[in-house]
Design a protein that fits this description.
Radius of gyration: 26 Å
Shape: globular
Number of strands: 4
Helix content: 55-70%
Strand content: under 5%
Strand order of the largest sheet: 1-2
Structural class: mainly alpha
Length: 472
């Protein structure tokens, strides 16, 4: 039986449509399949300027570190952060405060704070090292041989001058401008009641903060490339590759911190209830994550930003491991003997795990060239980060400011441990001269900041699985 001309044409048309749909569907399937992986296309192999791989960090963090840190940071010693959220921005006029409800921070009444943290009680076997007065005396004793031994030969005025010198010397080793502990604006904040999450703070004010950080306080090849218009519209890979290790490390640390903060906002993103009556919920937002890290939506930069998270993770992990001899001597005192003992045991376990990591960041290769040039570079490095710590007071959202200050101070403490003048010469409590010192605020911010990085690495696996499930 032969088909007439019309039937033949009909069959050809139907066949063509079928083939077209088949090709389109096949291409769509491939596109959806790649969608789940393209954000993570650089999360493999060796981490830039480090010796270990992404897979090593993923396993180490998600299996060994993250669950322990999550439990530790719920303890009183690490949950009550004393901070000043009312400092004026030193660089520009902040035109408005975030008026969104979720921007606000709930502070703690004085009676809620454990007495040991406030310095009211002393541990049985330790002096009270968390009161400001004791810290100041300790610092003077450690670096000047003990002012108490010469009280009878110098006046009160001279002692005050010596104390000012000591504060100046301490500032030379700090990478952050810390809040003035004597300010009436200092308040305790319960970090567990004020979780870091998306508040709706965005727009010109938020962009101005990051723009100032990247364009004015990150090392750039500005002389060769000219001024940049926006912080993340630059091909930073082209900019940083020709730089020396110290400048590359600075940029990668800041970029990794930025990435970590963004991941937290994607992981805790408010979603309204579909029925319009029930309360919404905080949960991972896959589309927000894609918008920030999909290479097609970020000029191919997003995957590299994710990889920078691993760099700053290794940097802070190394700082904690390096400070282990000092941290093992800390009492972590709050006044609750049972909880304080559990914190000491948890810290000991985390420090052992940190020291067992096979490929730590090697800070000894930084600032290791010509002594004069290395000293200049280190001071420039410190000053750049010092300015960034001050920019945190320009954030218009209180909750964003809270977590920004905490994480920047934590990274600054890590820099202090890795690159301090004394280089942690001794942790022997019987040796006062050149003994390294961290305040409670520095210890709290160091562990909480590392906890945020640890959570970000963990959340990447969550988003990877969510994106994969959307394409299955």
């Amino acid at each position: 039986m032969f088909l007439d001309k019309n039937n033949s044409q009909f069959i050809i048309i139907i066949t063509s449509i079928f083939l077209y749909v088949f090709v389109i569907c096949n291409d769509l399937e491939e596109e959806l399949s790649s969608l789940g992986e393209r954000c993570f296309c650089k999360l493999k192999g060796r981490i830039d300027d480090c010796n270990c791989s992404v897979d090593t960090v993923d396993y180490f963090n998600n299996v060994k570190i993250h669950p322990r840190l999550k439990s530790l940071l719920r303890k009183d010693y690490f949950r009550y952060f004393r901070v000043n959220l009312n400092r004026d921005c030193p660089f520009w006029e902040v035109d408005s405060k975030c008026a969104i409800r979720d921007c606000s921070v709930k502070t703690c009444p004085d009676e809620q704070i454990p007495p040991g943290i406030k310095g009211q009680h002393q541990p049985k076997s330790h002096h009270n090292k968390y009161s400001q007065e004791t810290q100041d005396l300790d610092n003077c004793d450690e670096n000047h041989g003990g002012l108490g031994a010469v009280d009878s030969t110098i006046s009160d005025e001279n002692k005050e001058e010596f104390a000012r010198w000591q504060h100046h010397d301490n500032a030379q080793e700090n990478f952050c401008e810390l809040d003035d502990e004597t300010s009436i604006d200092m308040q305790y904040v319960d970090l567990q009641l004020n979780p870091e999450r998306y508040t709706g703070y965005k727009g010109a004010s938020a962009h101005r903060v990051w723009k100032s950080i990247y364009e004015e306080n990150c090392f750039t090849l500005r002389d060769n490339y000219g001024p940049y218009s926006t912080s993340r519209n630059i091909n930073w890979i082209e900019v940083i590759n020709p730089m020396c290790l110290e400048k590359r490390a600075f940029y990668r640390a800041i970029s990794g911190l930025h990435t970590s903060i963004s991941i937290h906002l994607c992981a805790q993103h408010y979603t309204k209830a579909k029925n319009g009556f029930s309360p919404g919920e905080w949960r991972p937002n896959v589309e927000e994550f894609r918008k920030r890290y999909d290479p097609e939506l970020t000029n191919n930069e997003g995957p590299q930003w994710l990889k920078n998270l691993y760099f700053v993770y290794l940097l802070e992990l190394r700082a904690i491991a390096k400070a282990a001899p000092f941290l093992e001597q800390e009492y972590f005192y709050t006044g609750n003997e049972e909880e304080d003992e559990s914190v000491r045991q948890a810290i000991k376990e985390i420090l052992e795990i940190a020291n067992s990591f096979p490929d730590h960041f090697n800070e000894s290769v930084m600032f290791s060239g010509n002594k004069k040039q290395a000293k200049i570079m280190k001071e420039e490095f410190r000053r750049h980060f010092w300015n960034i710590s001050r920019i945190m007071d320009c954030v218009g959202c209180d909750k964003c400011r809270l977590w920004g200050k905490l994480q920047v101070q934590g990274l600054g403490t890590a820099f202090k441990i890795l690159f301090s003048v004394n280089q942690l010469k001794t942790f022997d409590s019987n040796v006062k001269k050149n003994r390294f010192h961290l305040t409670r605020t520095e210890i709290l911010t160091l562990f909480n900041a590392f906890g945020r990085l640890s959570n970000s690495v963990y959340q990447l696996e969550v988003f990877r699985n969510l994106l994969k499930s959307k394409t299955d």
